[in-house]
Amino acid sequence: MTLAEGTQLVSFGVLTLTTIVAALGVVLLENIVYSAFLLGGVFISIAGMYLLLNADFVAAAQILVYVGAVNVLILFAIMLVNKREPLAPLKNGWIRRGLTALVCFGLFALLGVVSISTPWSVLPEAPNVGDTALRLGQHFFSDFLLPFELASVLLLIAMIGAIVLARREFVTSSAVDGDDNLIFRLPERPREPIAPEPVESK
Amino acid sequence: MESGIDLQGSAIQLLVDLGVPTPIAKVLWLPLPMALMLVVATVGVLIAVWLERKIAAAVQQRYGPEYAGPLGVLQPIADGLKLLFKEDIIPNLADPWLFTIGPAIVVIPVFLSYLIVPFGQNLVVTDLGIGAFLWISLSSITPIGLLMSGYASNNKYALIGGLRAAAQSISYEIPLALSVLAVIMMSNSLSTIDIVNQQANHGILGWNIWRQPVGFIIFWISALAETERLPFDLPEAEEELVAGYQTEYTGMKFALFYLGSYVNLVLSALLFSVFYLGGWSFPVPVDTLANWLGVSPALPWVQVLTASIGITMVLVKTYLLVFIAILLRWTTPRVRIDQLLNLGWKFLLPVALANLLITAALKLAFPVAFGG
User: Fold this and answer.
1) Which of A19, A54, A80 is the last residue in one of the domains?
2) Distance CA A97, CA A92 (A)
3) N or C: which end of chain B has fewer CB within 10 A?
4) Beta-carbon neighbour count of residue B283 at 10 Å?
């Protein structure tokens, strides 16, 4: 075994272990903030897997998109809401958990059987594709053009939807009437005051 | 183009000649460039901190550090030693795990990015095919560490500081990436070595700063925002947030944040010099100079001289940019958070997009000048 092979084997083991442990942590931990941070760990471990598969561009894109954008957005959502409310224990909660575990195990078994029974055509040796970014670009603009463009349309739809949802009319009718004691408040979310409210004078 | 000095090949050859088997010689060589880069980054920070103190003093008409070594050059080491010996406090209700991991997540990606910083044709840890993209994707990990330490501190100032830092860093990543993309488009490669080589042909006139007059300004503004330097140091605005996400940190954990911010500043300056100022190239091409003087560029001593000039040029350009950043810090007021976000999303992003499109059009129209 050469040094490179040994390094790859050890990295593969470590990455597998971190992926599985972090993914279990995401699902099983009670604290949602821990789950969000561990999700970042899962994404980074999977980027490491891509690196082992010689897909360096995909690995960097995985970090940029999933860790740098998706995970940060999830964290933002959690921290801006920041409502620490102990959830009331459900009646017969174990039935739900049992059913969930059953369904998940069934899915896992199904995927496992499929991946073992499929006759994968394994190349004896990984071909050297050279500049991965170049090859990806060539494929995106030739044989994968339609999926690529469809994905960008999907992103556009999501963006327009987000803008429509986020746009709110801030000026209420009392502002038009010229009311001096106007308080700008978002209609949907009444805020809980942090400190006791000051006595309103005048 | 000649390859210049091949340190790796020579060092391995030397070890093999000494009787070491070839695989072991390669293993012995492997950690050396990485360790050297760590040392370079750390020493670069010490110099940047000393410059910061001296220039701040000069701006404010003081002397600055004076007693630790000649002109106070040992002051950053004294600072570091002080932080090393301070008590490591974890606040009572803080989350000890996240509180400890946070600073590490902020610092590690910055140091990893030094992998792609070239000081010469072969003077780089590794010439990755995805070089510039690696830097951009690594720098997107940092907000997670900031959010983590802000949340774990259990302090409202820290939380707001962390959220601000993350918001700022996400908003300015996009114009930064778009301005880098214009440079990449001109050099047809993501590798930092290729980007420098593409600028190397006509001396100072070939540098990207002339071909990307808008791009380099966008890059510099975004880099200042990414490194949280004034006028964009909102995450740690003293008057509003005490020290932002660093409020609860002491000792070495605080030192990690401090180190990380300066390493990031020096890294941004290094990459600015690579992307826009021709990296290690001299204002007049060294080969041309050698021809004027009538010496062959292939001579060993000329090659050593060329490499030294290259390293010196990178460092001169970098510290010139660091100087500008420090001068900006001590002369400009801080922007407000709404001004910051407006500048990022409503001004820099459209301008960066337009810059990218114009660069693409010019590349098609004048392939000679814009790397067709």
Assistant:
1) A80
2) 9
3) N
4) 11
